[in-house]
Amino acid sequence: MGSSTSSLYSALAKTVSRPALPHPCDSTYNPGNDLDLDQDPADPLELLRECREVLRNRPAQLQRAFVQTGHGDARQTIRIMQWNVLAQALGEGMDSFVQCPMDALNWAERKYLILQEILTYRPDIICLQEVDHYFDMFQPVLASLGYQSSFCPKPWSPCLDVENNNGPDGCALFFNHKRFQSLNTTHLRLSAMMLKTNQVAIITTLRCRATERAFCVAVTHLKARSGWEVLRSAQGSDLLRNLRNVAQRIETEEKTDTDVPLIVCGDFNAESSEDVYRNFATSSLGLDMCTNKTVALWYFILTKIKYVWEGIKFCL
Predict the structure, then answer these.
(1) Per-residue pLDDT tens for 193-225?
(2) Residue 296 has what pLDDT?
């Protein structure tokens, strides 16, 4: 690939040398906001060219037609990517993608495909589920692009049952630290009927450096498969309760009587007819689409797709 690809290749090819992670249920496990300030910054356009060079023999990148949801001052517009990226260990070892060619699941190329999508759309905030290559791919590469991040693994990740796994999968949240300042991050192990479950969420409070407005972003991945609708509903209710607490705390700390903007991204594994969807839509948080005259709350309930949303305004 030549010397021009050395920065990306080194980040993707090496195994990060670090002690083994404690079990997520261990009280000593304290995942924080990861940003390697000593890491040399990378040129996103150069990295995108490197990805395309590696993938030159694969089918062309899918061209997606996105709907523009807002217009105006770039300082007031935030681009968000929501994506269940599929845990590599599950794709290869457990989920039985019988109609998917194995070469499509080859991590040596699939990691470049994932990065190509991220680099193409350059989101300000990235919310991911089923991340099991956080420390050896997502975190170091995205940190070199200026993203600060947080990772919350599942307590009993099925990835750990796969031979030669890369650790547990979980949710990860990334944000452009030049645009936003991190005020607080909460990692949740979601409960259902007062019992802890295997699903998690991250709630991060950010401040826009340009407008000084504080807002909240959450990412989660609820229980999958038919027959677990009641559990999903209970997990959603637990997340809503925590979101209310965080929103109230921000309002107190910011000394404002204006609703704190809230963005919820995730793979809810739910049909729109399920209770978990209705509970979010009718929540006391008032999760309504905002207009150009109203600062309201936003929510995203997306299912195993990649999506970019641009047009959220916080300085109206």
Answers:
(1) 899 999 999 999 999 999 899 999 999 999 999
(2) 28
pLDDT digits (tens, 9 = 90+) for 99-155: 777 788 889 999 999 999 999 999 999 999 999 999 999 999 999 999 999 999 999
Q: Domain range for residue 206?
A: 179-315
Please indicate, yes or no, if residue 73 is contained in any of the structural domains.
no
User: What does the CA dihedral 301, 125, 134, 196 come to, rounded to 10 degrees?
Assistant: -40
**Residue position matching structure tokens 């030549």:** 2
Residue 205 lies in a domain: yes
For residue 222, what are the contacts with CB-CB under 8 A and spacing of at least 6? 190, 199, 232, 235, 236, 266, 267, 268, 269, 270, 276
Locate 11 and state its tokens: 């980040």
